[in-house]
Amino acid sequence: MDLIIIGNLINTIGAIFLVYSYIPQITMLLKRKNSDGMSVKFWIILIIGMLGMLINMVISGASLFVILTQVINIALAGIVLILVLKYRKKGI
Q1: What is the pTM of this model?
Q2: Is 51 in contact with 74 (CB distance < 8 Å)?
Q3: What pLDDT digit, counting tens, does each position of 27-39 carry?
């Protein structure tokens, strides 16, 4: 088997797990409408870090699939951040 095919397969499996990992968090936030204990700073720093990695991927000419995976990852993290901000208690 070609190394590029193996790499793409591993990336696909990783992308599926990564996307799936956001679902319980988003579901919990939507059901409970409460983001107590969730750090806004964590999500902001995570998104900034992932954006930096995305810029590097584009500059270095990574495959479109890898770039798309990172864009989806950033979008899902952004959704979580928006929900955390929306449902956090006022005054905290």
Answers
A1: 0.84
A2: yes
A3: 999 999 999 999 9
